[in-house]
UniProtKB/TrEMBL annotation:
This is Muconolactone Delta-isomerase. Its EC number is 5.3.3.4. Belongs to the muconolactone Delta-isomerase family. Pathway: Aromatic compound metabolism; beta-ketoadipate pathway; 5-oxo-4,5-dihydro-2-furylacetate from catechol: step 3/3. It is an enzyme of class 5 (isomerase). It comes from Advenella mandrilli.
Amino acid sequence: MLYCVMMDVNVPADIDPAELAKLREAEKNRAIEMQKSGKFVHLWRVAGRPANISIFDCESNDELHDLLSSLPMFPYFSIKVVPLAKHPSSIK
Ligand SMILES: O=C(O)CC1=CCC(=O)O1
């Protein structure tokens, strides 16, 4: 099943810069691992905002939740999920 996931990143302004750098590195590594697994199909930055839009291909809502909550920066995200269904006019 495909899901469109929209994440707003809300890192506290007073977070220790060294801690933030570590968190971002861990986030990048986990995101690369998930992309290589084929579950994290697309990842796009929203231009001009600390936000991203991505496409996940998961077996279930539970699997999607497990993947999202495994991201090290999960506590700092506001997430919206839109489950995608086939459009009758799509040729793909
Ligand atoms: O968009 C961000 O900064 C947060 C994020 C989610 C996956 C990733 O690699 O970064």
